Amino acid sequence: MQPIYGKDTARDIKYNVKLEIARWNGRGITPRMAVVLASSDPASLVYVQSKKRTAESLGLGLEVFDLGAEVSQRELEQTLHRLSDSAEFQGVMLEFPLAPHLDPEKALSRIAAHKDVEGLSPANLSLIATGREKDAILAPTPHACILLAETQGPLIGKRVAVIGPGRTVGRPLISMLINRGATVTVVTEHTREVQTTLKDCEVIFVCVGRHGLLRKAAITEGQIVIDAGINVINDGLKGDADPEIYPLLKAYSPVPGGVGVVTSALIFQNFVRALELQAQEALTGGQA
């Protein structure tokens, strides 16, 4: 078994981002990202402060807009729309989870596609689903999953499985895998005979958010597992794969230390992509 750590990949991504941001800084411009909070989740604030420190180390500004857990849907949408329209910010991010009364779909639709550093706006997801990744900003978690899987070889022609077709990870991941020529099996809560379904898959991506979901009974020896699950358990952060499966695997991404590390770096790569798209738009006068 071989653990697939994300540290080296994340370091390379951030190195390139820093070079790109330095080019903007050299012109007297400090690009800025806006991050919006709309919940009482204490972990979210910790994550945002970590992003802010990383942003500063890369040479860009990051401003946090904490709207609180009582914010209305209308106020949240108006804030996202205002930030998307503002020339002060070249990237806008909505931190999840949101307060329970808020509609994430409606909120995300208010972020302009060319400033959507998490690649979760309907416009970016549509581009990915139609095979136009070169025109899109890619959702960072599924992109991280693919980068780690590709350390074990190209995905073209491989049989792969995605466990959990959720909106923010699974669904865009499915499209991105298809775009890379993989043969994709999707496992949902209604899938019968999971072991039989997964048996011939070389790579399994699990992204449900349920600790220990993927167990020995579902695994065939020699498979690769990319774990995008994030579960806060008493003794720390855990993935969706039960560690008891590791000895059976050819390779696996650990939690923490795998997908999450790369995801954090890709948010800033997406910011650079957003800068490029806005520069192109300025040159063409806003025409596609």
Structural class: alpha/beta
Count of helical stretches: 9
Q: Would you identify the CATH architecture of the largest domain?
A: 3-Layer(aba) Sandwich
Taking strands numbered 1, 2, ... along the chain, how are they ordered across the largest sheet?
Answer: 1-11-8-7-5-6
Q: What gyration radius follows from the Cα positions, in whole Å?
A: 19 Å
Shape: globular
What is the CATH homologous superfamily assignment of the largest domain? NAD(P)-binding Rossmann-like Domain
Largest β sheet strand count, sense and barrel closure: 6 strands, parallel
Report mean pLDDT, rounded to a whole number.
95
Strand content: 15-25%
What is the helix/strand order? EHEHEHEHHHEHEHEEEEEH
Kindly identify the CATH topology of the largest domain. Answer: Rossmann fold
Question: How many strand segments?
Answer: 11
N-to-C span: 47 Å
Brief sketch in words of this structure:
The chain is an alpha/beta fold and 288 residues long.
Explain what the structure shows.
The chain has 288 residues and is of the alpha/beta class. It has 2 domains: 82 residues, Leucine Dehydrogenase, chain A, domain 1 (Rossmann fold, 3-Layer(aba) Sandwich), CATH 3.40.50; 121 residues, NAD(P)-binding Rossmann-like Domain (Rossmann fold, 3-Layer(aba) Sandwich). It is built from 9 helices and 11 strands. The strands form 3 sheets. It has a 6-stranded parallel sheet with strand order 1-11-8-7-5-6. The protein has a 3-stranded parallel sheet with strand order 3-2-4, with helices on both faces. It has a two-stranded antiparallel ribbon with strand order 9-10. Helix 1 packs parallel to helix 9 and helix 6 crosses helix 7. The longest helix is centred in the C-terminal third of the chain and has 26 residues. The mean pLDDT is 95.
